[in-house]
Amino acid sequence: MLSLLFNEEFVVLVSIAVIYFIAWTIVEKRKDLAEKWGLSLDGLAIMLKTERLNTFIERCGLKYSRFFRLIGDIGIVVGIFLSIYGMYFLHMNLLSLVYRTPTASPVTPIIPGITIGLSTIPYFAIAAFIVLLPHELMHALVAVAEKIKVKSTGIFLLFVIPGGFAEIDEDELAKRSFRSQARVFSAGSLANIATFAIIALLMPLLIYPTGVIVQDTLQGYPAENVLKPGDILVEINGEPVRTITDLGNILSKYGPGERISLTVVRQGEKIHISIVLASNPTNNSRGFIGAYFTQAMNNPMLFNALWWSAVATSSVAIINMLPIYPLDGGRVMESFFRKVLKGEKTARIISYALTLYFAGILISNMILSFSLFGLRPFP
Predict the structure, then answer these.
(1) pLDDT tens, residue by residue, 187-202
(2) What is the DSSP string of 1-51?
(3) Residue 231 DSSP one-character state
(4) Is the pLDDT of residue 257 over 60?
(5) pLDDT in tens, 5-24
(6) For helices 178-206 and 328-340, what crossing angle results, to 10°?
(7) Are the beta carbons of 313 and 349 closer than 8 angstroms?
(8) Does residue 378 carry a pLDDT above 70?
(9) Which of 68, 134, 336, 355 could form a disulfide with 145 if both were Cys (CB 3.0 to 4.6 A apart)?
(10) Closest to 331 in 3D by CA, of 168, 149, 93
(11) 209-297 — its CATH code?
């Protein structure tokens, strides 16, 4: 019973149930509060809408309309490259997953309590905010620059999946040219890839490796009962170990049976440990400590926040531009076919066919990722 109570999936399900119950209670019993907060239940989603940003969005979008239309044009070009890269990656990665090659990468949806642990949720929340705010704001600003009304902005929760939206007047949008529509649709992913670039530039300035952390030791190997989980290995025979790569390069110099001196930081104090290397299971000529290591950073919390934000912004930027309706890339695709083909019905059929194909490729990547990497491939 106790194991069930502390099971992460159980905790998440109970938390979601409580959130939905509170939202339902407010919507049904306190309609005044629900209206004031813009809270509603739309099908299975909890919605929070606001018009408070409308004045700022309209003023900024109209004042700098030429700039935001230019941003929209850049977004179209960047969106095309993101879409092509996304399609190429999914196909090549699917082959790598099928043949289990070292180049295979996990394609996994982020589901709190299932594909990520509860300890990761704060970093995921930060990443979600960094993804949603510029994404939806840029959609809205470019729409206003195209003289398309923005009704509201907001966030939603669909079970454990958060999201955001800029509620644009779809009737007005449908009347605009393909170029105007593509500007609006592509602006969000451009904002995300720009955010990713900023994070990528900041990380080397703020974060640096400080050694490798002992996660666990292997039974019957030298590290057992000598190294402890949480130890940070910083030197081997006086050579600094800052990264996992450093560790591998230094150990490649020593063979089985050789004695080496390890300098580790344990509970803030440096200690020196001498061990005799064992034979590496995958290469008998190389020495083996017998421990699992992960990277240590100078500021683990900041690193996790930036790492998750980088992963989220780049992933959303690419996946969002795939030709899958109703993603933005799918809407650009449908708008394009409506322009170049005479019949709207034909454009819709082709768009749906491509949506089914690429959605199938994406889902296949996910299924094979689960079988190869498990439910939690990320740290």
Answers:
(1) 999 999 999 999 999 9
(2) -HHHHT-HHHHHHHHHHHHHHHHHHHHHH-HHHHHHHTEEEETTEEEEEE-
(3) -
(4) yes
(5) 457 778 888 888 999 999 99
(6) 150
(7) no
(8) no
(9) 68
(10) 168
(11) 2.30.42.10
Residue the block writes with tokens 């199938």: 360
Greatest pairwise CA separation for the chain in angstroms: 77
Domain boundaries, the chain: 2-34, 54-206+301-373, 209-297
Q: In this prediction, what percent of the chain has a pLDDT beyond 90?
A: 81
User: Quick check: 4 pLDDT over 80?
Assistant: no
- Which residues are registered as beta bridge partners of 161? 158
Q: Give the tokens for residue 253.
A: 């110099």
Q: By 3-state DSSP, what share of the chain in percent is helix, strand and coil, each rounded to 5?
A: 55, 20, 25
Tokens at residue 87, please?
A: 């399609």
8 Å CB contact between 104 and 31: no
Give 311's contacts (C-beta < 8 A, 6+ positions apart): 127, 378
* The three-state (H, E, C) secondary structure of 133-190, written as one string: HHHHHHHHHHHHHCCCCEEEEEEEEECCEEEEEEEECHHHHHHCCHHHHHHHHHHHHH
Rounded distance, CA 196 to CA 309, Å?
8
Nearest to 304, CA basis, from 203, 215, 198, 377: 203
- Long-range Cβ contact pairs of 31-36 (< 8 A, separation 24 or more): none
Mean pLDDT, range 312-324, rounded to an integer: 97
User: Any idea what DSSP says for residue 112?
Assistant: B
Q: What residues have CB less than 8 Å from 344, skipping those under 6 apart?
A: 338
Residue whose structure tokens are 């940003």? 53
Bond prior to 326 in cis (omega within 30° of 0): yes
Please answer whether residues 223 and 289 qualify as being in contact, where contact means their C-beta atoms are separated by less than 8 angstroms.
Answer: yes
Q: What is the mean pLDDT of residues 54-78?
A: 97
Whole-number Å distance between alpha carbons of 315 and 130: 13
Structure tokens given for 196: 């990713």
Cα torsion for 38, 39, 42, 46, to the nearest 10°?
130
